User: Fold these one by one.
Assistant:
Number 1:
Amino acid sequence: MDLELTDEQRMLADTVNGLLEKHYDANARLGLLRSDEGWSRDMWRRYAELGLLGLTFDEQYGGAGMGPDELAVVMDCFGRALILEPFLATVVLGGGLVAAAGTPEQKAAILPAVAAGETLLAFAYLEPAARWSLTEINAVARPSEAGWTVSGRKTAVVGGDAADQLAVTARTPHGEVGLFLVEASATCVARDSYPMQDGLRGADVLFSNAPAEALGPPADALGAVEGVLDVATAALCAEAVGAMDRMLWLTVDYLKTRVQFGRPIAVFQALQHRAADMYVTLEQARSMALVSRLALRHDDVAERRKMLRAAMLQIDLAARHIGQEAVQLHGGIGMTMEYPVGHYLKRTTVISKTVADVDRLTDLIGADGGLVPAG
Amino acid sequence: MDLALSKDDRAFAERMREFFTTEIPADIRDRLARGIHLGKEDVVTAQRILNSHGLAVPHWPVEWGGRNWTPLQRHLWSEEMTLAHVPHPVVFNTAMVGPVIATFGSQELKERFLPKTANADIWWSQGFSEPNAGSDLASLKTSAVRDGVRYIVNGQKTWTTLAQYSDWIFCLVRTDPNARPQRGISFLLIDMRSPGVTVRPIQLIDGGYEVNEVFFDNVEVRADQLVGEENQGWTYAKFLLGNERTSNAGVGMIKNRIARAKRVAGPLMDDPLFRARVTRLEVETAALEMSVLRVLARETSLPPGSPDPVSSVLKLRGSELQQDASELLVDALGPAALPYRESREVPEGFAPPAEGATDALPTYFNWRKASIYAGSNEVQRQIIAKAILKF
């Protein structure tokens, strides 16, 4: 059983945490949040220098050749510092898709540039009427002389505002859900950019016969997309646990320092027990984040997906409990934009709606027979 | 949670499963699986089979029948036993008094008691709680006054589980009324047949007689039945209670009950509301199972006895999920859960009760105890709060 971090993983965590403690305190983050771009190019360069932007890519493509466990270590750190940079969009999703679906030429052309911090990517797959379905999509891809063209509308594209290239899902004339790479600067790509509810930047993107190249054969695309979303799910679980851990400890510190009725409010048992319940929820969430990483090693795809869904479901419920209680136990200060705890609530709320939501996850797990065999 | 197990550990679990399902009589396992109450004989029979194969007390020191297993192997042994519906060895014997005698008792006490304790030749009860010493156990008042080679014991214990079966009782008694509460307590072994011991059953809301009051009226106890040193009993009690950080989670019990609920639910499993409840419970149980494995994985790296608030998480969440699972089964059964029946026999022409029907509501009522015993859930919250708030 390898349920604890290895020494190397601990060192990785120390390095990333050290960097973020130095450059990413709550004030610095607030400044970035209010800046035009919404995140830090300097930090992006530093991530590249540490090898984080190619963390999971093969070494032949400029990557560090690490796996989902190391990715989880880094995501946990990012969750603690609540980073605003488009790491999930560019490295986990965009880079992950190129690595999983791309031809060797595409990988060689794109991944080293991503790892060096020179290229930003995003994954445009959600559509306004499809909730989180990968297949109920209206975007279409048509063969053209130069390759393909893509038309359709995508929504809530994390990092879609700044991405140089967009990985887009679209239905081919053969009825397959293919994966296509589109230059974001093309004239037939229109972007409606906005901050997401958690402050990370995103966009709705309108493709009107945008020139595109297929990322690998369209027939294989869906499997690759699902595999990358599996990895992203585990990564998001880890990020959420990092954020929830910070929420608990911010709350604990606040209870110990806030004085009312002449004493720190931590002496009140009603509050002590609510903090204890947050701890219970956090530990259960931490366990399921671990389950999500172990699930990625499962050969049986159905089993793997069921466990990943279970993990995300538990994380979502935990994030609601911890986030809501963290704000409540802080009282008014927890409601302010100036204080960090609300920002954690916002991020974990968005994380919980990135790959699916609780009702869909619950339904999918149940439809697949659940986790305990009836025997 | 096969995902988290190594090949060797998986093989170990399979060996256990194989043993439990072939060596323990099918009729005992079948009755337990169907929720039919087992008597003392069944539990003793199963424990003796386990003991004859060296599987009753694997966590004891090797010279007294232990196996030198890893914490994870001990956990798998226990979980597989539950999943195979094998009655566990008497917990008061194997998990409680046995390890205390083996660790703190004299050689003479070890030889006198350990083999019989492992083989269930003696059935032990636990004499800790008193009417006015529940969560505040250290305030216990039952006294033992030294009189030459004997102690004279007076007082009352309560919530004494299965005292009606027991031959001996291990008691926390006050030997120094003037010391600080925790300092004046000793750990004494008392023969239930001693003159002056009276057992009075307490009927619980499920209709059964699981617990008792035990009265001590000038009971004479040989002084050599003191375990360890006088006035050190609180240390031994803490050792006893801290011995199994993970056993109160009850993952196997929860899974068994969910499985039974799914079997009896039938078409209800297609109802989205009911199915969602089942799924949420299953997911939370998977999280609990992984939390158990995490505690076990840390067990080898933490110094023994060091506090780990995660064990309180296991007790707290485990007991809640046991209760949720018992509730789920009741809801799955619907009206079939309502009749109260002492036995499953019905007059000719009537259909026998559905699987699990007769014990579903009694168990739901009975399992309210899970959040009360072994440190009430409020006490567990207090332990966690203290650990994180450090006040």
Number 2:
Amino acid sequence: MLFVPFVANFPLLLLGTMLTRKDLLGIQDLSHEEILEILDTAGSFQEVSTRPIKKVPTLRGKTVINLFFEASTRTRTSFEIAGKRLSADVVNVSSATSSVSKGETLIDTARTLDAMAADCVVVRHSASGAPHTLAKLTKASIVNGGDGAHEHPTQALLDAFTIRERKGRLNDLKVAIIGDVSHSRVARSNTHLLTKFGSHVWLCSTPTLMPAAIEKIVCENGEFLHITNSMDEAVRDADVIMMLRVQFERMSESFFPSVREYFRYYGLSRERAEGAKADVIIMHPGPINRGVEIATDVADGPYSVILAQVSAGVAVRMAILYLLLGG
Amino acid sequence: MDLLVKNGRVVDPAQKIDTVTDVVIRGGKVRSIGAANISDIPVFDAAGLIVAPGFFDMHVHLREPGTEEAETIESGGCAAVAGGFTAVAAMPNTKPPNDNPSITRHIVSEARRSSPARVFPIGAITKEQKGETLAEIGEMFEAGISGISDDGMPVMDARLFRRALEYARLFDMPVIQHCEDLHLSTAGVMHEGMYSTRLGLKGIPAAAEEIMVSRDLILAEMTRGKYHAAHLSTRRAVEMVRQAKACGLRVSAEGTPHHFTLTDAAVADYDTNAKMNPPLRSAGDVAALVEGIQDGTIDAIASDHAPHHINLKMLEFDRAPFGITGLETAVGLALTKLQVPVARLIELFSTNPQKIMKVPSWGLFQGSDADLTILDLNRAWAFDVNRSRSRSRNSPFHGWRLKGKAVATIVGGKVVYEDRP
């Protein structure tokens, strides 16, 4: 048991159950209770970030390694800040600076970090399933920081936190997720989470960016998942519009003819956003491409919660690290 | 070698034999079939067992020359006889590939020296398997190849594939195609469907196989070539071959044990031992393949034995190579999973592959090489990959409990493998 000073200043000792799982790999296999536990814990952590001294000693002596095989600014920084605000030692390893570029395999890299007695490794990788492969081999907890086109669970959790904060609930909402569904781990994780809680998810994209059998992707509550190619249909009376980033590197594969044409059919302009509910919130996992998938006046407008998502990210990741390592 | 195989149920669909009797082998050849009262030669007691013509896996990768850390002609040959195969046909995608007679001769002589199973090399269709110009098919034929294929690398150029079908007629050899439209399957790592979408892995649509099969069947009709479709995996591909046969085309097809046993659900935990090409397909495809095997559309069962060193399979799913080992599990899986009479099973594993490939026939004909597979239909066993004769360990069937096994393998009258309690 860790000795924790400043008890009076620290509400978290009252929090009950830790996550019993070793790793956080995806939303698909998380239960309602686990998700709510993470969101509630994140709620209590939010306050820490508003203090003049933004630090609590909860994870003092714990080591968190950010192992990023794919470029990332916000997720890596968010995990780093989350770990540091909990007093964990945070080490960043990116593929450009590690021996990964010398040909070491993913598995050897992970075993090496494990041998250094890391408590938690946050993994981002362009190959779907890479964190799952690691989790089977390490003693350290593995947190999926985004794997290929599979899952990005912490993003979905921070999105859920933001939605619940603004809408007061996670059920009975209409959430439109628009853009490159095919290559999006954010779309998959959010779809799993929101349908689990009984919200209607509308996935919307060009047929070229809609993967096979997408309508069968969720294991439960399949009736809450809707597929459309019409952005107007997706946006109509939506409570939440979630835009996905267009990945320019995919242009060569002819998923759509041009950026201009893409924005015409799937870009979020102010006019198009007007089809949604009056109190719609507009989300984006970032980084945004202004004028490609979202118009600047919408991204910076009153309905946008894009920056609130970023703030929530720190609290949610603090909660995840705490619940996995704090016991 | 002399041997008396006694009291076995001798089954040979080619001669419509199915009777409990003896087989006399003298000098490595079958002398007679029928009750024999001789005492001057060693006896193999086959009571309660099936005596069949030697099984032939017409699609394996032996990795020699070039990738001996994964398999050699010797280790692959040992795995073959341990799986009940007296012969294998070795695909040409070695390093360098078998695209010229000197490599063919090397494989033939190395097999004679070290392999307990007979090895029939398959030559490349095109130089370096690049799909650009024909390899020296006749020269390789003279050196000992039994068919041609660019397996792993489908011949995308229809004009070139037409020439291959035409030219191979000179030698009455099959042209074996790995059916995949590479443009459609680019970067795919598993079957395209619900699981690929859920797992975020790039899919290989069934259409990639079906488009190639349909193109090839049209070319086979046009050229009257001898066409063989390797490892069919989709419902529509099976259906197209069925129709082509009904129209009288000289086409044949094979199915693999993993394609009639597993579905794409096996990938769920990113198990790289469930990564192969063609990929594991849907339950509907599996059912169609089984039906094709039962009704004769599929002529042969071949394992597509594709050993890979564990270092390569321990990678991210996207980066791991395609393929699994299969020589030691093929017969057990077929006996366990397929509801077909034993005579039909022998056609699939011996009679038909011998007909498809350009090989001298063996088995239970008087005077033929005494290459025999002895089956125990009731033997319950579990596959332990750690005891495999292969140099590689990439099998998804580790720990599987199977019923029915090849318990002895006889090549040229010599018992080269035996597993009896």
